[in-house]
Amino acid sequence: MTILNNLKLGIDVVSAHNLMPKDGQGSSSAFVELNFDGQRFRTTIKEKDLNPVWNESFYFNISDPSNLHNLALDAYVYNNTRGTSNRSFLGKVSISGTSFVPHSDAVILHYPLEKRGIFSHVRGELGLKVYITDDPSIKTSTPISTAEDIPAVNQSVNDPPPSRKKEVRHTFHHLPNPNQSQPAQQQSPAVVPMPQQLTKHMADEMKAPEPLPPKLVRMHSASSAQPADYALKETSPFLGGGRVVGGRVIRTDKTASCTYDLVEQMHFLFVRVVKARELPAMDVTGSLDPYVEVRIGNYKGITKHIEKQQNPHWNVVFAFSRERMQASVLEVVIKDKDLVKDDFVGLVRFDLNEVPKRVPPDSPLAPEWYRLEDKKGDKIKGELMLAVWIGTQADESFPDAWLSDAAIPIDSSAAALAAIRSKVYHAPRLWYVRVNVVEAQDLIPTEKTRFPDVYVKGHIGNQVLRTKPVQARNFNPLWNEDLLFVAAEPFEDHLILTVEDRVAPGKDEILGRVIIPLTMVEKRADDRIVHSRWFNLEKPVAVDVDQLKKDKFASRLHLRVCLDGGYHVLDESTHYSSDLRPTAKQLWKPSIGLLELGVLNAVGLHPMKTRDGKGTSDTYCVAKYGHKWVRTRTVVDNLSPKYNEQYTWEVFDPATVLTVGVFDNSQLGDKNPNGNKDLKIGKVRIRISTLETGRVYTHSYPLLVLHPTGVKKMGELHLAIRFSCTSLANMLYTYSRPLLPKMHYIRPFTVMQLDMLRHQAVNIVATRLGRAEPPLRKEVVEYMSDVDSHLWSMRRSKANFFRLMSIFSGLFAVGKWFGDICMWKKPVTTVLVHLLFLMLVSFPELILPTIFLYMFLIGIWNFRYRPRYPPHMNTKLSQAEAVHPDELDEEFDTFPTSRSPDLVRMRYDRLRSVAGRIQTVVGDIATQGERFQSLLSWRDPRATAIFVTFCLVAALVMYVTPFQVIAALAGLYAMRHPRFRYRLPSVPINFFRRLPARTDSLL
């Protein structure tokens, strides 16, 4: 409770820029009023200044941290009218409570001032730094009274105005001048308990229909027909005590738990072996090395043996699947470990019909002492503490239990045991590090007879970048170049910059270096200018000390260094991004929904290894969405594994993709010809915007993988997916927002920079996830992130070309139809077209309304044929069915190639690099065309509904508005002054870029 009571909201009011003049003399006397949770503070008044600087800080009490996300900070900027108590509105800023971050993550943001009403006229920006702190030394500011007037000009804080009868104090703290170097104050990050905003979607309870067959399967055929074996199949499984029919869960078991309502309930027999006491000695020495063997039918689990203990302690949980049980008695046997033959100590028997059932949230079952028996059933000395119950995968003991389908001895190594259990991983938060190398001063070359040819080399970890070499004729070279790196929190590597002199080809000498810890680098969330600093260069080790004493000046390097938090660090393919939020947390918007995934089972898997003379697989699934990666448990030695694990994610943008991959675990000690790399079996991609809200999608996805011999189906993965919307208004509003954070449009990166930065980001994520226990291996991260999607492939190039031709096929069909009209092949149709043409020529104002009304009717008509299943990989669309073997050999060739001599390899690699760019351009053109098609296809039901509604409204407006007026307004808007233009994309462009394309269906 102490931490909660100390929580405060800190606001640093820094400055304002380009305010609206309100005093009639071209200026304003501005002050800021802050409102939060019933508390109100004001800054001092800055007389006659359109760019005032306050540098004042205020602290609000947070009365209820659990309700913080429902609160908002309102900052109003007013102009004070001198000599009166009147004030005029200059603008406001409203910041949601979901954007508040700890002090360590806070940066100064310049918020554009918003209007108070439709007729308000405002301009300018307000610079604020908003953060949460729990520092007990900070005292809350004294709020002003609601009836208090505006503070007087230049009035002292401690002296109340003379006209006031009631003394009211207003406290503030001046911030340090950013131009002065002062030691940074260390503040501990605030501990903010985030309220749980996620709610489970409950299926409507309905009367149970007639019994359905055990497996109700429907085949779906995509627009590009492919073999039925490669198509998606809709299923009707029992999930959470009910059957899924038409996307809804029809409850048949009213008592079933809904904690895991997207997976089939799996019942397990749980046995918790806690400890034993007073065990009898088995030899004359009195020593005993006991262990416990839990047996049921052909299955058994064994604990570790404990040397020389008559009162051993294990505390191990075993879980046996009830589906595989073929016995009615459970035996828990204590044995003595021996080199020749283990001795029997005693046992405890249980009748499975008498074992109690337990369903969370019931408290765990209390273990009991049981008297040991011999083989004849007589009681002997010694007791064993046990707890035996029947539960489901919702039991809290399930994740850490020894599972019968794992088939790994419990005395195996900790790494082997951890490698088979389900885990949740969180990828690190990535930052772009921008280093602007301005110039160097007073360089001291080793050779005085020549001008140094110098450049700056920077590296963070394994990332190395260089500036262009500059010949320093005055020993003060000027570069003014940007170097971009990727770094992950917590920052472990330092930024190291070295100034080097190129003495000869292949020979460089270091003139000096500087080491900058990333924890000391300034963070920014917008495009404000970062103050530059001079850094003294450290001399190399082998330097002449006497010469340094003679030198009058020390070498320096002029830099601008910052952590750019306004970008989204791309660490996956841009076509399949699962997260589009910027790095800075204060720029994050509230979530719009909840994504729930149930990994049910896999069937028909291909064997990936040989064990005991037969083919088998040890498979697990990995799902990735946003920063959260999940890994199911490994089901050992099973080609039809059942996982039945459920996971949830918060959704912040519908234009994102969930990726689920299936892998074979190679870390269990088997000899693998590919080393210890986990083998990929296949993956599934699902775009969130193609899902209807509230519907449960239960489909069996074919796992299609391209091999050097062609496309292969490696099995099928059965998933259950549900997207629940928490705020329909926020979700519809996202269609008007830019796809990426605004920094990507204000200061965009080049294509080469994005490719390089993405490669570094994937390596960092793979390294961090590889340090977890169990590690998420690098080959898994790379496969899930599509690291090789930019490489050249003749097959993908042909697929993109045919996608483009499919888009233009509609135009070709219209041209052919118009040609038929001109040739009078259908006289009746031709006469009707002539009449329509004459009518539109006579009444041109009907052209646009007719077009929009026609599109509206097409969209409404296509609603009947809207897709009812998520898109999946299409072998025909991917040109994978009839691909030439030589093209496959080229696609699976190494890069650089290993098929030809050096000269041919150089040309071949250059061709692949250039062709990869062409392939991307063609794919992007095809994507734009496919987005046009998706406007009325209901592929994204919300986007189509918005567009169809717009078409209806546009048709009605244009029916009553003269065409000349609409044409004039459209022309004036297109030729509007640059002052009325924005650097961010317009709402129609943002809406269009969020539309789904067929990239999700490409292999």
How many beta strands in the DSSP annotation?
44
- Classify the secondary structure makeup into a structural class: alpha+beta
Q: Major sheet: order of its strands?
A: 10-11-43-44-35-40
Q: Return the average pLDDT rounded to an integer.
A: 82
Instruction: Write down the Rg.
Output: 35 Å
β-sheet strand percentage:
25-35%
Shape descriptor reads globular
The parts where pLDDT drops under 50 for at least 5 residues are: 146-223
Q: Main sheet, how many strands, which sense, barrel?
A: 6 strands, antiparallel
End-to-end Cα distance: 53 Å
Total helical elements: 15
Helicity range: 10-25%
Oligomeric status = single chain
Write up this protein.
The chain has 15 helices and 44 strands. The strands form 10 sheets. A 6-stranded antiparallel beta sheet has the order 10-11-43-44-35-40, with no helix packed on it. The chain has a 5-stranded antiparallel beta sheet with strand order 7-8-1-4-9, with no helix packed on it. It is globular, with a radius of gyration of 35 Å.
